[in-house]
Amino acid sequence: MSLTAFTVLLGAWCPQESQQGRAKVVEQFGEQVSSNLIAWGIADIYHSPWFLFLIAMLTVNIVVGSFKKVFPKLRTLNVPLPFLTNRQINELPAHFQVVLVADSRSVLSAVSKNLKSAGYRVEQRSDALTGESGKLGRLAPTVTHIGLLALLLGVTVTSWTGFSGFQPVALGEDLSFTNSEHSKLWIGKLPTWHLHVDATRRENYESGDAKQWYSDLTAIDNKGAKLKSGEISVNNPFTCEGVDVYQSSWGLDHILVSFNDRWARLNLSPMGGTYAAFMALDEATVLIFSVRSAVAPVKVFAKTAHWPEPRILTMLVQGKPVDIGSVKVELRKVVPVTGLQYKCDPGLPITFCAFAFIIAGVLLAAVPHHQVFVKCTQLGGGLTALQVGGFSRKAKRAFEQILRRILVKSCAGFDTAPTSGGDAEGIEVATTSGGETCPTSN
Amino acid sequence: MSDLQLVLTNTAGISSVMSFWAFVSSSASKRWQSLLLKVALAIMVACFAALTAVIVARGVEAGRFPLSNLYESLLWSAWGVIGGYLLLGRTYDIRHLGWMASLTAATFFLYGSWLPAGQHEIKPLVPALVSYWRQIHVPPLIVSYSMFFISGLAAFMHLWQSNCRRSVAYAALALSAALAAIGLGTFMDVNVFVLQGLFVGGSLIGLGSAWIALPKSETAAEDDKAKLYDEVGHRSIMVGFPLLTIGVITGGLWANHTWGTYWSWDPKESMALVTWLGYATYIHLRVHHEMGDRKLSLVAIAGMLLTLLTYLGFNSLGFGGLHSYGKFKSEVTLPAVYHHKSLLQCLASDGAICVECFLVSEVSV
């Protein structure tokens, strides 16, 4: 577990090639260090053999630990608590003694009543009783380990049968699943239908920041028949035949511009709040097409090596040609692109159940499990020595306080012995102060 | 930020500082101790009430759940620390932990107030955050962090009461190094490797020294106060751990709902997993009695450092990832230039277009 944690820590520290690309690793660490990190597998740690080995070891540990240690303990749940002797109670972490002027039956009955009202399940015999609360908390390891095993099962099912992928799709184009990613031991099947992007748009706040991205999608089978259509947005996926499609990102893809009636496609790249296309005219001069949105005019700049800053030439509006020198330039279209993430995850229901079990398990772990042992010893002369002890692995002090309160309440109806002392083996007798029953902790 | 919010935030911030001094003064004067403790506690309750009010007011003003950037999360963290202390204080006599809890809350306020103005403003949410999952995923995490901070503070008190003063000093040095790294990373332009070295190196050296400085024998008797703080630390972890689990799992569910994957090895996700594994180790060691109480307290302090790294370290120490708390540093993005040589060659081959054609018609806008 420690080695896995350390490995994950390394993966969090070092940018991962599979997520951020090799360029990011080189940018962060420089050529020399990054080449070492790549060679040692740290830059792609989650696919490295030694990480997979650690995960395999952890999996074996969880499976073996669950069946060898955790699940067998379930049997002890139904085993009743033993009735302890005076000496055994004295050895418990929390224990109290008091001598009362009463018979043992009525003392036990009072303690039993108070334990029950405090939520304890009580088992009683003539001179002793046991109480137990929070027994449910003992199920915590079992429930958590069931969750962990279910998680392993869910991930395995997904790995063998599921697939996923990401594809930026420009407006009017199709998403197919042919380039999906899946594991080497895959036995699943890719869909034969494809998705068509009918429309895609961005909704803005008044400030101009993106509020939401939308895409209208249609699933079309290989014969051209429409299977299903729907609108997706971020946090609102589209599902068709077990495949979920997510609105992952959004942007402007390219502009179609004509130069003297020759159409050209200029690809856009994101530049902070805007997009830009660059067209080199010669080695020292570049034309820059700056696009803010799909509907706003496109600004055209020029930059030469001699100019400190780009200079604006004109602004293009769709369908309105502009003459720049002897060149007629016309903007035909600004084409958006929608980033579609998709996946098929047949193991998901099992994984969700696993999550529920794990959450339930750790919540149960917070429930304190208390065991209380009570013994009454008839001392003669109408006196009864009451001995109470208990055990809790969690919240020991709080348990001690609860035990003390129960004892005080239980003794409230009886007179306590006027003198200290006792004749039963293992019993220390607490005296009273100010006429009130006052159990003391040893 | 509205005036009401400003007043409430200032009230909460100032009262956290006042309660800190009241707790400190109570230790200095035995005669007035009882009164000063009551005053400190009352101020703390006022601080908690003001914090609750400011969170509600911010939510009403923003028209959304007020937990979307670093500043708002700091308000929640302070709320969690104060609330957690007050809650534990109902069961346990932990008055000597009060000054530490107040100081932690005051530090959150100070850190939050130094953040750029953009962090204090209510800003619209990016599309990925517009989801009901935000209010399910984030609060359990922030409150779990608060509980882990309390457990770390209780661990300090436990070691102190157990007469492990040298260990306390070394652990405090480790914590100071971590806080210094976060502070420098947030407010100054320092090389990230220096910051990461300061955080990780300081933590390892400090905790390692604290471990070595522990008494060899764990059997030495501990007084009631030491046992009390040990139990408070354990209890805090037993509250924080389920919350962290819920936070991590609901984060996975949200990611699955948004991006179709419940785990993507994002640095923050990975770090949350490391923190979870750290506390799972603590619980296992505790349940199976495999380690003495003092060593477990050092594990709890190590857990607090992991929590700090997860919560604040990853953004301020340059780890990046999907979980940013909004910008608190200026970023410069350099454009990549795309050359359309083929187009240029195609157009120029007609002889109808040339560089000069474009440049003669420069206009000013």
What value does the average pLDDT of chain A take? 85
Total beta strands of chain B: 0
Q: Structural class from helices and strands of chain A?
A: alpha+beta
Task: Write down the secondary-structure element order of chain B.
Answer: HHHHHHHHHHHHH
CATH architecture of one domain in chain A: 2-Layer Sandwich
The number of distinct helices of chain A, counting runs of at least 4 residues, comes to 9
Q: What fraction strand of chain A?
A: 35-45%
Query: What is the average of the pLDDT values of chain B?
Result: 83
Quaternary status of these chains?
Answer: heterodimer
What is the C-level CATH assignment of one domain in chain A? Answer: Alpha Beta
Description:
The complex is a heterodimer of chains A (442) and B (365). By secondary structure, chain A is α+β, with helices and mostly antiparallel strands. Among the domains of chain A are: 80-134 and 368-433, Kinase associated domain 1, KA1 (TATA-Binding Protein), CATH 3.30.310.80; 251-336, no CATH class. Helix content of chain A is 30%, strand content 36%. Chain A contains nine helices and 22 strands. Chain A has helices spanning 2-13, 17-20, 22-40, 49-70, 86-90, 104-117, 140-161, 348-365, 396-411; strands at residues 94-101, 121-124, 128-133, 163-170, 174-175, 194-204, 210-220, 226-233, 238-240, 243-259, 262-267, 269-271, 274-280, 285-291, 298-304, 311-316, 322-324, 327-344, 370-380, 383-392, 415-416, 440-441. In chain A, strands 1, 2, 3, 19, 20, 21 and 22 form a seven-stranded antiparallel β-sheet that branches. In chain A, strands 4, 9, 10, 11, 17 and 18 form a six-stranded antiparallel β-sheet that branches. In chain A, helix 7 runs antiparallel to helix 8 (348-365). The radius of gyration of chain A is 37 Å and the shape is elongated. The two termini of chain A are 40 Å apart. Chain B is an all-alpha fold. Chain B folds into three domains: 1-124, Four Helix Bundle (Hemerythrin (Met), subunit A); 127-331; 332-365, no CATH class. Chain B is built from 13 helices and no strands. Chain B is globular and about 55 Å long. The two termini of chain B are 36 Å apart. Mean pLDDT of chain B is 83; it is low at 327-365. The chains are: A alpha+beta (442), B mainly alpha (365). Chains A and B meet through helix 1, strand 7, strand 10, strand 11 and strand 13 of A and helix 9, helix 10, helix 12 and helix 13 of B.
